[in-house]
């Protein structure tokens, strides 16, 4: 059965070598039994060169339901600076990344905090998945909110010593855990339950890198991760002309995909998109994954126009993206309304405060203003200057 | 003149060897000129085996005034984990430690935060000096609040490269600085001006260690700096019986001084007194310095009775301390009223919120309740059991 499923998997995704995939399944087969009809496997099988899932794929609904309800069988704390992440394994090879709540919904990023030291917000991770789906990109792996009992559901089910080492009881008798210590253990970064219940986001894992390799590519519009540095795109208004000449941005849809990503990031207010990932086996035409969106939705009152630089400097946009944005600017399908309704499905609702929802409408209009400013009416999906 | 002053200094304090002191003065003399009539030198000369300053010493008033107004001539960032401290030098060998504001007056320590990772509060440092003076201990070096322009008064006056390396401009265009990086620079710990003005506490430096050596001794009631550990004093109700047998607590006033310190710490709510310091040259009878009080005043609603363990386990108290506490429990000299009035002198007033001031009265009554519970009426300054 394993091999049968594997053949389908291989045939469908055309992502990997049989040997590598077999090696992977052999190892996991010793440890767990799995049902080929699982939502994870079906999700992985459904990934294609255009998107992570198709528009009306029932698998995603099942995956969301499973992530909300499946029993955790083991947990691993991921080393990640001071960010808190737990990789949770469920039955049938199901796996999700848990990011705990770090701040209240109405707390905003302090004005003096740089984008690269901002906290990660579990609700931003959830909201970004919904927005990506509403924009019809389908480049964010499914994310759900879940109230987890970190003692009985996480700590007690795992024998992992690394994990046990980061759990502690706070002075208020709440169960807490902190990031895997790279240098010094920082309990001030801990996330704490009340006393054991802690809400967080669960993001569905993609197929393992040995099965479906991905590469991480620096964004051409990467920011300077220093206090004073400026990147070329910030000072050269003709920067895109250079990029347009360079591989892989000189042909195909890669640059248009970068512009899609910049619109997505502008809407969520994410300044921290230093790299993007693609599945290698789809080649240069594959879609861009929109992973790690937890630094979005930090400041509802701030529209960071520099995030839109790929759009405003290259002045091109996919027709399908533009049409979707125009649709969501209409009063019948107002983005904030669609988002509000979509986010109501999540068990941790409300996911976003009203000011953050309304900011989406304001930002959407700003995107369209940029488009109309630079693009002649008839010009879509091509360079306008 | 140097040698003349030095001789007086030596004769008065009897703290050091002539050679060491001469070496110290020779070095500093190359760099600065100083006036022997400065408040710092007079403060240092006034230190004796009983206290840092005498009750009505006009030097302290002058020192406070000088700390508030003197021009900074250089600054050094002190490595201190993630705590932010700048050593500021003024003319005439004047030196003070600057601790910047990290949280608002009405912010409380979150309930899940351990005492050893709590932020340091500049206003707690200021308030602790006033309380120590009101309690007639005079074991805290003078502290004042000051609004400092960290750009013009600190950054621009110093050529120190280490200092420049920790200054940066925040996304909101405020001038900020972070702690000297031991491992990774953590801008999320930064303190920021508005845009350059930042309030903080200035604590007067004690004489240098080469002139007046001090030793740091672990408190017998030290806490376990781990998540789960318990120290013997926490589980053994007869712990003090053991301590009373041990040098240096088996004679003289050292144990009574420890008890004074525990009362002081209980009143300010400081659980972080792991060590205490004494001037070595005063011998075993010298007073205990109450340094580093910035983790006090974190939770106005919490009275941490374990801090009083030295008092409740040893059941002894100095008569002078008890009389002072009883005085401050009377309505004419209510501790909160005396503190409120005293703190009004500071330029950063209000230093403490009303709930923190009122907590002092409540805690004072709890101290007296412990005293009356364990001590027979006539028994002071001696062991009661």
UniProtKB/TrEMBL annotation, chains A, B:
Belongs to the FAM20 family. The gene is FAM20A. Mn(2+) binds at residue 292. The active site is at residue 272. It is found in: Golgi apparatus. This is FAM20 C-terminal domain-containing protein. ATP binds at residues 99, 203-206, 277, 292. Its cofactor is Mn(2+). Residues 167-381 form the FAM20 C-terminal domain. GO terms for biological process: enamel mineralization. InterPro entries: FAM20 (IPR024869), FAM20_C (IPR009581). Residues 1-21 form the signal peptide. GO terms for molecular function: ATP binding; metal ion binding; protein serine/threonine kinase activator activity. One of its GO terms (cellular component) is Golgi apparatus. Keywords: ATP-binding, Disulfide bond, Glycoprotein, Golgi apparatus, Manganese, Metal-binding, Nucleotide-binding, Signal.
